[in-house]
Design a protein that fits this description.
Radius of gyration of chain B: 17 Å
Helix content of chain A: 40-55%
Number of strands of chain A: 10
Oligomer: heterodimer
Distance between the termini of chain A: 29 Å
Order of helices and strands of chain A: HHEHHEEHEEHEEEHEHEHHHHH
Largest sheet of chain B: 6 strands, mixed
Strand order of the largest sheet of chain A: 2-3-8-5-7-6
Number of helices of chain B: 7
Order of helices and strands of chain B: EEEHEEHEHHHEHEHEE
Structural class of chain A: alpha+beta
Strand content of chain B: 25-35%
Chain lengths: ~425, ~230
């Protein structure tokens, strides 16, 4: 195959621009679908990895309720993670009728020599009113253990106190508000806000943040209401409940072993929990995402097959139409393999052009899709923290693989027609009308 | 140089068998100008195709300098077509999307000749057939006579030993036809190229030094020019 033969293949495409264009369009759809899905999937995986890296891989994530079978299935573990957003998320035990509920053993965990620091979050949906607003709102209120913002900054991306101060030791019935919530409530530092039937004093307002907490992190801090976790326990009278625990293992400790210690410590208090290392959790989520992506990509690949059939159809038509031309080329000395490569390159070019346009379309489409999916999550409120998870990521190797792959796909689709062309007997091809 | 020995060729058209050649012996020597004549269906084009390696016989042999063509591989046959013979067809058989120059260059593309040399040789050949001012015209923009001259230039550009012409004047008016036959005669005379022309018009056969008559797949007369016709 010389450059001149390559140019001849290209010339042949240009002589039938409409047909070539439509065939290319078929490939574009397939390539764009696959590449866009890969880009979105990789974006999701990457953002999950980044979040876990921010939280730290030596951290154990604790959620209430024992997973089915220790470790549980991926989906259950994911479910437990997502459950914490639900107002109904509860510890598996509300305490029997004859037993006083025990407290979440935070201090015991902190006392473990294998543990550097630990924190708890308890999220409830509560009626909230303030003098600065009319009526009342049903808002998500998070009780936090002391020092959690400093201990686990990765879980609260963009956290910074704008006015007033944070929650300090000994604080009771105090409230730290997100910027948007503060505005909605018409509250500022020193204001009084009523949650259920208790008055809370606003001690601080968070600086507005554009960092949208995504996926597994806290969520949109602009919408947050933080109170000391003890206040929520007192308010609801259930000190055994929590939504999420974070435990950082001492460097050098086996995180999985620490997870086991955390589990048994909770079990001693009669609270069954699922304790999974961030590493393990990251692997599980990544594997679920990977599976999802593989399935979606396989479905999208059907479009690719249809595109390839289009190329094959075009090439068969082309061979049929140019039978006489093939006869001429053979009469003036073209060898079988030269005719073969002429048609293979032509169909490969159809694939390659389709691939190039497809990648460009994928880049545009994946951006639009993730924005609209993100907006949908954002609008859903509860799952708003998942919004940013869908930033697509088009890696260089994906682009290269898509281009090489679409050229090969086009060539493969052209193999049978090209063989037919190459094997034509010159004298018969020349007789073809 | 080029000879057929007892060649037979049978075509199948649906269920019927057409015996195009029924045992033909034929021989061309270097520098000859041979006209093969006969009514349509007499097998003259089939014979020309076999001599040029476009087809292989069902029985018998085609020899080029003593070497049997049909014994060689498909590649060897392609090589033979590309370097040793040049074809000129009744319907010109130019590639309509390529310019005259590109059409003439094409055989050299398949031989892997470099662009510069290819272009120079194709241009020279087109000038020789009087088309120096038509290099960048496509076949559709040329008259029938001009198209046939492009085809002759294409056949000559590889410096073949034999020019095999299948009814080269069949699609031309008599003036253009005469010009083409004169061109072939001149090439034969001045460059010593062997020419075999298939025609069914006796007026063109007078250009040839030797006239061969075929009927029903056989050669019925293989005489010198003027032997019988004059």
């Amino acid at each position: 195959m010389t450059l001149d033969q390559f140019l001849l293949s290209f010339h042949n495409l240009r002589t039938r621009p409409t047909r070539a264009g439509l065939t290319i369009l078929g490939v574009v759809v397939g390539v764009a679908a696959v590449v866009a899905l890969v880009a979105i999937g990789q974006g999701m995986q990457r953002s999950v990895e980044e979040q876990f890296r921010a939280i730290g891989y030596n951290t154990v994530v604790v959620t209430p309720g024992a997973a089915a079978g220790e470790g549980g299935t991926d989906v259950l573990a994911l479910g437990a993670m997502v459950d914490r957003f639900s107002p109904l998320a509860q510890g598996g035990t509300r305490g029997g009728a004859f037993r006083r509920p025990s407290s979440v053993p935070l201090e015991e965990i902190r006392a473990l020599p294998e543990v550097v620091r630990a924190g708890l979050i308890r999220t409830e949906t509560a009626f909230v009113t303030s003098p600065g607003m009319q009526g009342l709102g049903v808002l998500r209120v998070s009780g936090v253990s002391l020092g959690i913002f400093d201990d686990f900054p990765g879980y609260f991306p963009g956290f910074a106190v704008g006015e007033g101060r944070g929650i300090a030791a000994g604080d009771r019935w105090v409230l730290l508000l997100g910027d948007t919530v503060a505005a909605d409530l018409g509250a500022r530092v020193g204001s009084s806000v009523r949650i259920e039937d208790r008055e809370f004093t606003v001690i601080g307002v968070l600086a507005p943040t554009g960092a949208s907490g995504v996926g597994i992190t806290y969520g949109n801090l602009n919408l947050a209401l933080f109170v000391p976790i003890e206040d929520l326990a007192a308010l609801y009278g259930t000190p055994d409940r929590f939504s999420l625990g974070l435990v950082e293992a001492r460097p050098g400790e086996d995180v999985e072993r620490v997870a086991g210690l955390v589990r048994s410590t909770f079990a001693q208090s009669g609270i069954p929990v699922t304790a999974v290392s961030t590493k393990e959790l990251s692997a599980r989520i990544t594997s679920v995402l990977g599976g999802m992506q593989a399935t979606l990509t396989a479905i999208a690949a059907v479009a690719l097959v249809v595109g390839a059939i289009g190329v094959m159809n075009t090439m068969y038509t082309s061979v049929l139409e140019r039978t006489r031309e093939i006869g001429i080329m053979k009469a003036i000395g073209a060898k079988d393999r030269q005719v073969l490569s002429l048609f293979l390159v032509e169909s490969g070019l159809l694939g390659l052009l389709g691939g190039a346009v497809g990648v460009a379309v994928a880049a545009a489409v994946s951006g639009v899709v993730s924005r609209s999916v993100g907006n949908a999550f954002e609008a859903s409120g509860e799952l708003g923290s998942f919004a940013g998870t869908f930033a697509p990521r088009l890696e260089g190797w994906v682009v290269v693989a898509a281009l090489v792959g679409s050229f090969l796909l086009g060539s493969a689709a052209g193999v049978l027609p090209a063989f037919r062309a190459a094997r034509l007997r010159p004298v018969e091809a020349l007789r073809h009308e | 140089m080029l000879c057929a020995v007892g060649v037979e060729r049978v075509y199948r058209l649906g269920r019927t068998e057409v015996r195009a050649l029924r045992g033909v012996d034929f021989r061309v020597e270097p520098g000859e100008f041979v006209a093969i004549m006969g009514p349509s269906g007499s097998g003259k084009s089939t014979l020309l195709g076999l001599l040029g390696g476009l087809d292989v016989p069902d029985r018998g042999r085609v020899l080029y300098w003593g070497e049997e063509l049909s014994r060689g591989s498909r590649d060897a046959l392609a090589e033979f077509r590309g370097r040793k013979v040049g074809f000129v067809f009744q319907t010109f058989n130019l590639i309509p999307t390529l310019t005259a120059l590109r059409n003439v260059e094409l055989p050299l593309v398949f031989q892997g000749v470099g662009r510069r040399e290819r272009r120079a040789r194709a241009e020279a050949q087109l000038r020789q057939v009087g088309l120096g001012d038509r290099l960048h015209h496509r076949p559709g923009e040329l008259s029938g006579g001009e198209q046939q001259r492009v085809a002759i230039a294409r056949a000559l550009v590889t410096d073949p030993e034999v020019l095999l012409c299948d009814e080269p004047t069949g699609n031309l008016d008599s003036v253009s036809g005469a010009q083409i036959m004169e061109l072939l005669a001149r090439l034969n005379r001045e460059r010593g190229i062997t020419v075999v022309v298939v025609t069914h018009e006796p007026e063109w056969a007078r250009f040839a030094g030797r006239q061969v008559r075929m009927r029903d797949g056989r050669i019925v007369d293989d005489g010198e020019a003027g032997g019988e016709g004059a």
